[in-house]
Specification:
2 domains, binds pyridoxal-5'-phosphate, Aspartate Aminotransferase, domain 1, alpha/beta, about 375 residues, three-stranded antiparallel sheet, Aspartate Aminotransferase, domain 2, about 15% strand
C-alpha cells in the first residue's frame, strides 16, 4: 500500500487501481507528446478519438462481444438511463417490465412509472430485499418491450447468480456496481449500462454496451440528447463528451486486461468476498449478514452488529486503522464493505482481521 493512502471501502465513488491513478498522474501535463493535458485537447482530435475507440474495443473484447454490439459513453449517471430506457424502448403500447430487487431497481421502475409504462415482473421488497428474485418469481408482461434487472444491488448487497430466461424479450441490466467484475454470457443481454464510479473510473460517465439493432432508434418526440440512436450514429461525440472520464475508463479496462481479464477479476473478487463472508459466518452471530446466502454479492458485503452503538464504534475504530467507508447505507443500516475490482486482497484481509479483533473486544 502506498504511503498516506487508506483502504477505501466506499460504494461509489470508490477505490481505483493505484497503477491507473499513477499513469494518469504521470501523463497529465503532456498527453502523448501533444504538449496538452487530456482535459485540454479537442474531443475531435485524433489522439482523443483513439482513446475512445480503444476503450470501446477493450470493453467489447473483455465481454466477449462482437460487432453486433456497440459501446456508448453518456452523461447524467445511471439515473438518467433509468428514464432514457423506457423513453426510447417502452412505446407503442409496450411496457417496461421490472424486477424490483433493491433501491436502484425501484428507482429505475419509478421512472418508467412516470411515463406510464412501468410493470413489476417481480419484487423482493417483502423480504427487505434480502434475495434476488428467482426465475420462478419473475412474470414478464405479455407486452414487455424489455425486462429490466439491477444485476448487483449495491445497497442491500445482493447479486444475481443466474441470468434470467426471458423467452426472447430483450434483457436490460443495470450493472453499475458489478460491471466487468466477472465473466458472464453477455450475449444474453441486449442492453447493459453502468455508472463508471464504482468499478470503472470516475463519476461523470455512463458506459452503455448494447446491441446496435436495439439502440438504433431516433424517435422524433424525444429530446435529441436522450435518443440512443444519435449517440450510436455519432460515436458518443454528438456533443462534448466527458473526455477525462472516458480516458480513465480506458485506462481501467486496459488494467483489467493486463490483470488477466474478467476471469482473473472473478477469481480475486470471489476470494475477497469469501474472506469477509467467512468473517461474518464464523462470528457466532456477532455479525449478521443482510443478504440471503444464495444471493450474496461479490461486490458489496452488508452486515449488522448487535447494536447501533457498536456499529458506530466499529466505523470509528476501523477508520483509525485506515479502513474507510464501511458505514452502510441508511436504508439498511449496519456496515457495507464495497470490494470492487480495485480493492486489494490485502485490504480485505485487514478488514477481516479488524472484524475479528473488534468482536473479541466487544462480544
Ligand atoms: C450507484 C448506482 C446507481 C446510480 O448511479 P448514478 O450514476 O449516481 O446515477 C444506479 N444503479 C446502481 C446499481 C448503482 O450502484
Amino acid at each position: 500500500m502506498e504511503a498516506n493512502r487508506v483502504y477505501n471501502f466506499n460504494p461509489g465513488p470508490a477505490t481505483q487501481p493505484l497503477e491507473v491513478l499513477k499513469e494518469a498522474q504521470a501523463e497529465f501535463l503532456n498527453f502523448k507528446g501533444t504538449g496538452e493535458s487530456i482535459i485540454e485537447i479537442s474531443h475531435r482530435a485524433k489522439e482523443f478519438e483513439a482513446v475512445l475507440d480503444q476503450a470501446k474495443a477493450d470493453i467489447l473484447s473483455l465481454m466477449g462481444l462482437g460487432d453486433d454490439y456497440d459501446v456508448l459513453f453518456l452523461q447524467g449517471g445511471a439515473s438518467t438511463q433509468f428514464a432514457m430506457i423506457p423513453m426510447n424502448f417502452a412505446r407503442d403500447g409496450k411496457v417496461g417490465s421490472y424486477v424490483v430487487s433493491g433501491s436502484f431497481a425501484e428507482k429505475a421502475y419509478k421512472e418508467a412509472e412516470i411515463l406510464g409504462v412501468g410493470h413489476i415482473a417481480a419484487t423482493s421488497k417483502d423480504d427487505d430485499f434480502r434475495h434476488v428474485p428467482t426465475q420462478d418469481e419473475i412474470k414478464i408482461a405479455d407486452n414487455a418491450a424489455y425486462l429490466h434487472l439491477c444485476y448487483n444491488n449495491t445497497i442491500y448487497g445482493t447479486e444475481y447468480h443466474y441470468i434470467p430466461e426471458t423467452n426472447g424479450v430483450p434483457l436490460v441490466a443495470d450493472m453499475s456496481s458489478d460491471m466487468l467484475s466477472r465473466p458472464l454470457d453477455f450475449s444474453k443481454f441486449t442492453f447493459i449500462y453502468a455508472g463508471a464510479q464504482k468499478n470503472l473510473g470516475p463519476a461523470g460517465v455512463v458506459v452503455v454496451v448494447a446491441k446496435k439493432s436495439f439502440i438504433d432508434v431516433k424517435h422524433k418526440d424525444i429530446p435529441t440528447m436522450l435518443r440512443y440512436g444519435i449517440h450510436l450514429e455519432k460515436n458518443s461525440l454528438y456533443n462534448t463528451p466527458p473526455a477525462f472520464c472516458i480516458y480513465m475508463v480506458g485506462k481501467t479496462v486496459a488494467w483489467i486486461k493486463a490483470q488477466g481479464g474478467l476471469s482473473a477479476m472473478a477469481e480475486r473478487n470471489a476470494k475477497k468476498a469469501k474472506i469477509l463472508y467467512d468473517a461474518i459466518d464464523n462470528s457466532n452471530g456477532f455479525y449478521k449478514g443482510h443478504a440471503a446466502k444464495d444471493s450474496r454479492s461479490f461486490m458489496n458485503v452488508t452486515f449488522r452488529l448487535p447494536s447501533e452503538e457498536l456499529e458506530k464504534k466499529f466505523v470509528d475504530e476501523a477508520k483509525a486503522k485506515s479502513l474507510c467507508g464501511v458505514k452502510g447505507h441508511r436504508s439498511v443500516g449496519g456496515m457495507r464493505a464495497s470490494i470492487y475490482n480495485a480493492m486489494s486482497i490485502e485490504g480485505v484481509e485487514r478488514l477481516a482481521d479488524f472484524m475479528e479483533s473488534f468482536r473479541k473486544a466487544n462480544a
